[in-house]
Amino acid sequence: MDYSKSGGVKPGQNAPRHAEHNAKGSAKNPFGKGADKADLLARMKAAAAARKTTDDTIG
Length: 59
Known about the structure:
Layout: H1 37-58
């Protein structure tokens, strides 16, 4: 078979297939808004406490 006439692989277009729902600069994730570490720790502690109370009631 003569592969010289079959053509090569087309290069990618370097674009995402879809837009992210929380892309940087969107309404949900604006530029300049940093992740608040205190808020993150509060949410983690609340989740751990909720898990602990559910685990205590099961066992």
